[in-house]
Amino acid sequence: MTIISRRNALIGGAAGGGLLLAGCGKITGADAFMGSPSYQHVITAEEYWTRASQRLVLSGGAMARQFTVRDISPNFKANGTLDPGGDEYNQHVAESFSNWRLLVDGLVARPLNLSVSEIRRLPSRTQITRHDCVEGWSAIGQWTGVQLGMLLHAAGVLPGARYAVFYCADNLEGEPSKGGVQSPGQYYESIDLTDARHPQTLIAYNMNGNPLDVSHGAPLRLRVERQLGYKQAKYIHRISLVSSLAGISGGRGGYWEDRGYEWYAGI
Amino acid sequence: MATNIGDGAAGAKARDGREVIYRHTFLVRLTHWVNALTIFIMIGSGLNIFNAHPNLYWGMFGSELNHPFLTIHSIMTSSGMRGETVLGPFHFDTTGVLGWSKVGSDWTIRAWPSWITVPSFQDLADARHWHFLFAWVLVLNGFIYLAWSLGIRHVQRDLWPTVRDLKSIPRSIIDHLRLRHPTGEAAKRYNVLQRFAYLGLIALVTGMVLTGLTMSPGFDAIAPWLLDLFGGRQSARSLHFIFASLITAFIIVHLIEVGLAGPINEIRSMITGRYTVPQEHD
Q1: Which of B105, B125, B213 sits opposite A179 (nearest CB)?
Q2: Nearest-CA neighbor of A263 among A162, A191, A160, A198?
Q3: Best residue in B121, B137, B210, B219 for a mutation probing chain A (most A CBs within 10 Å)
Q4: A54–B124: do the CB atoms touch at under 8 Å?
Q5: pLDDT truncated to tens, each residue of chain A (267 aa)?
Q6: Is B120 within a domain?
Q7: Which fold has domain A64-259?
Q8: Which of B62, B124, B221 sits opposite A134 (nearest CB)?
Q9: What domain range is B235 assigned to?
Q10: End-to-end CA distance of chain B
């Protein structure tokens, strides 16, 4: 099966018989410009500049706003994968995740291999925060989990490590609201060590006081509160510390990043 | 230096005896045209982003599971698919434009139609790239304009209304309604409604930038007061949309007024800076 991205399809269409799509995007030259090699250069520059600005203002370790129990959304929308399915994951659901393991490996002195109940026995942090989807909606929920910084400290981060990569159990095919059919792929995410060590960055196992349900990422998910929803990877089974994101899947540091979204998702 | 649009000393007689004044300084003209292109792309890419979640809410949170006050969607009826816009209790059939419209020759479910969005096809990732790229242009251009205009006292002299201006509001409204445009000395300075419109535009663009930043989970961490100012992230998102609608209304009125006041003279003055003062009984 040939997977054609929307952009390639458009470029192909433009080359084949002229743009059928008339639009503001066409009038301003936006559509045509997107077919040119300059586009990627400009967008890369814009992403770099935007990311550098966010890094500059957030380097002080500012905390995301925390809300009260009264502010919790009555319905917290679940998005992306709602159930990873498959024999292996279904088996874990049947066993209430008693055999689920979280690996912490890569550039660490002491790789960890933890069960969910071992993680639950570690010192925990609970916070009520707002989840902002890149699509535009928001929901407020309460999260309980272990601070990722604590896990990394226990594993001993080796010099040269720059990113934490999160490997997930779900294979996502994309969402229409994010721009049509996307090529399927294993979900993964990554953050830098500044965000990994932020006190509000959790490997969460409880939501609103109950164990995570399947649609919200059971048994373990990431909370990295100063970034958008697609960074909050669900169904995590492995965290790997690496020096570079190149060579991992599409090389841009995440499922959605490989499909054109910003790696630093603070806006 | 002729920096004041009402500066009669800058006047010169054209060959036909009409008075020509130097109306717009170079930086005002440059930032005007950069802004014109930027706002066009910001609105188009903003509507493409809106299409990813075509609902608006008030408050701190909101998704389809809560109560949007505005929704643009498509519905299946006995006569086929229709586009519908729901504003509070009101339902409007907006087939062909909002909710259900043609992309090329194919009918498609999309809130805002292809002809108005940047890019024309639905793609959140690309629309965000366009939006954030031109957001930088908007902010830098706006900063240059404001710094220059405050520095040469353009804002203070030409835009900020005087007491006499305020007293002329009823007359100015009547003149505008009767499509009567000022001539002679009165045409050399902005009338009170123009002053309000241009100051209002500066306030709206400032509001766009601030509500835009309020939608950023990162920026909220360093400026949580923004959430209090606008009443939460979803309120900020709705205000972002409403301010953009008001800017669109400004642009429409602005273009109509340019057309009524003499488009060639007006547009030329924003390109070369030189404006021919309309005379009485013109």
Answers
A1: B125
A2: A191
A3: B121
A4: no
A5: 333 344 433 333 333 333 334 467 777 778 888 878 888 899 999 999 999 999 888 888 899 999 999 999 999 999 999 999 999 999 999 999 999 999 999 999 999 999 999 999 999 999 999 999 999 999 999 999 999 999 999 999 999 999 999 999 999 887 777 776 677 899 999 999 999 999 999 999 999 999 999 999 999 999 999 999 999 999 999 999 999 999 999 999 999 999 999 999 999
A6: no
A7: Sulfite Oxidase; Chain A, domain 2 (3.90.420)
A8: B124
A9: 8-25+152-276
A10: 29
